[in-house]
Design goal:
Layout (H helix, E strand, L loop, with lengths): L6 H6 L6 H10 L8 H13 L3 E6 L7 E3 L6 E3 L6 E9 L5 E9 L4 E10 L2 E10 L7 E4 L2 E3 L1 H4 L12 H4 L4 E9 L9 E8 L10 E4 L1 H8 L7 H8 L16 H12 L8 H14 L2 E6 L7 E3 L4 E3 L5 E10 L6 E9 L3 E10 L2 E10 L7 E4 L2 E3 L16 H5 L6 E8 L9 E8 L12 E5 H7 L8 H10 L4
Parallel strand pairs: 6-11, 18-23
Antiparallel strand pairs: 1-16, 2-3, 4-5, 4-13, 6-7, 6-9, 7-8, 7-12, 10-11, 14-15, 15-16, 16-17, 18-19, 18-21, 19-20, 19-24, 22-23
Length: about 475
């Protein structure tokens, strides 16, 4: 573990910081007297031990407030809110995928994923929550101040008010980060959430489920399996960090850290200009045919519907299941809902290497069924391996063996991290950043291009560029300074 940096040490290196520098100073403070690491660890463990949550799989007939709608068989909520499970047919020539159909979550609402930040002793701290979601592998994970659909924070569920939502809906808020970002394109139909960081200066009412942490303290636990949830990761990926010159957390691998610092700065060149990368992404969208249409859930080819699941006939991809949830700390303490349950753990990884002394990441232009704009920038590898196990070698995901079988000394980041626990059941990926050398030439092609960290940070400030898995890895990359 890198040495801990206290608040005074972080401030001494910072000078008079602008916004990016303020975030970097917070990331460099890996401990804090506001909530010391030992206190946080005990508090978080206590919430996980409390066992005030119970998630039980049930038949669809036991769902309360949900029904298979007559006519199309879509699984919908009686209120017309939250989300529905519908059918989707996709036709594309991308990677010779052809035509397929699948269930997909349709949730047109734009939710709020937000972190409240406040300075303590001149260093930004984030108000973080120990939050239960029904699909989380560990049930309780470290979550943003607010993660709520519009149906939730407007009270469609009839439960308690969403804590701290007023900081994000007030017209007088001070926004530091504000960006619309996509969700999982393979499971959601054109779903987006608003990623926000709001700064406050006054007193914030305390709550036992919340604690103030520096970004460095969040980074400290992001590398642990299934601690920091997806919503926290996607917000942190949007943070415009300044290059951490002079603020050192990682002294284990100085050559890697130096190439990463050059990559973050944007001042040391790149294999492609940002304009060239945008032209490449535009070309993918224009070059491939891609059409989709919604179908009745009851009319999907290749999927079978039983009393308690909708599953792929070959045992691939995912299932749609139903769950009964009891949670004392949530706005509603008991409810039922459908969940997407992938059939195995996935893998999402960036291949990284220095090019002329600047770290570059190999980015994949990936088409997914529910993507808002056909194609987004994805990790080098992003897949459920079981989906490809019976396919010939030329149909296997490129670089899968390289990242799956990487030697320990090539791993710059390696952790199992779960996806959105409010809609997905035990959906997690092994997230990796794998550094390679000359064995992977710095060449790219029509589907893969090399990009610097600074270029990814620039594009993530806007919508429709980086998919959610790439954003999780970008947030993870920032833990490796």
């Amino acid at each position: 573990m890198p040495p801990l940096v206290s608040l005074p040490e972080a401030l001494a290196a910072s000078g008079s910081p602008g916004l990016g520098r303020r975030f970097t100073v917070s990331a460099s403070a890996t401990d804090s007297p506001v909530t010391p690491n030992a206190e946080f660890d005990a508090w978080f463990a206590r919430h996980r031990r409390a066992n005030r949550f119970k998630v039980t799989r049930i038949p669809f007939s036991d769902l309360v407030g949900w029904r298979f709608r007559e006519g199309d068989g879509n699984l919908v909520h009686d209120s017309g809110g939250f989300f529905s499970v519908t059918g989707l047919e996709v036709n594309t020539d991308w990677q010779d995928r052809g035509t397929w159909s699948q269930p997909i979550l349709d949730q047109p609402e734009i939710g709020v994923l937000g972190i409240v930040v406040k300075e303590f002793d001149g260093v930004l701290h984030c108000l973080m929550q120990a939050k239960m979601e029904p699909g989380n592998p560990e049930t309780v994970q470290l979550s943003p101040t607010v993660q709520a659909t519009r149906s939730n924070y407007t009270g469609v569920h009839g439960g308690r008010r969403t804590a701290y939502i007023e900081y994000f809906t007030s017209p007088r808020r001070t926004l530091l980060v504000d960006s619309l970002q996509s969700e999982q394109g393979a499971w959601f139909l054109q779903k987006r959430n608003r990623n926000m960081i709001v700064e406050v200066t006054g007193d914030v009412p305390p709550h036992d489920n919340f604690r103030w942490l520096t970004i460095g303290q969040i980074h400290r636990v992001l590398g642990q399996d299934n601690v920091v949830n997806m919503d926290t990761r996607t917000i942190l990926s949007c943070v415009p960090f300044e290059t951490p010159d002079g603020l050192i957390r990682n002294e284990v691998n100085p050559e890697y850290r130096e190439s990463l610092a050059r990559s973050l700065s944007g001042r040391h060149g790149s294999l492609h200009s940002t304009g060239e990368l945008l032209a490449w992404l535009t070309d993918i969208k224009a070059r491939h045919s891609f059409t989709r249409r919604t179908l009745p859930l009851s009319k999907l080819d290749g999927w079978s519907h039983s009393d308690d699941e909708i599953a792929h006939d070959e045992g691939k991809h995912f299932k749609v299941i139903a769950a009964d949830v009891r949670a004392d700390t949530r706005e509603v303490t008991r409810w039922t809902q459908p969940l997407i349950a992938p059939v195995e753990r996935g893998i999402a990884a960036f291949v990284a290497r220095p090019i002329d002394g600047v770290l570059h990441l190999l980015v994949h232009g990936k088409v997914e069924s529910g993507s808002f704009d056909t194609c987004e920038l994805a990790p080098t590898v992003q897949c459920l391996p079981v989906n490809y196990q019976d396919l010939p070698a030329h149909r296997q995901p490129r670089y899968l063996d390289l990242v799956r079988d990487a030697a320990p000394d090539a791993l710059r980041f390696d952790a199992v991290l779960s996806e959105e626990g409010g809609r997905f059941h035990h959906a997690d990926n092994r997230y990796r950043i794998v550094e390679v050398g000359e064995e992977v030439p710095p060449h790219d092609d029509q589907d893969y291009h090399w990009m610097t960290a600074h270029q990814l940070m620039t594009l993530v400030q806007h919508s429709r560029y980086l998919n959610v898995q790439a954003r999780s890895l970008l947030a993870s990359l920032h833990t490796t300074w």
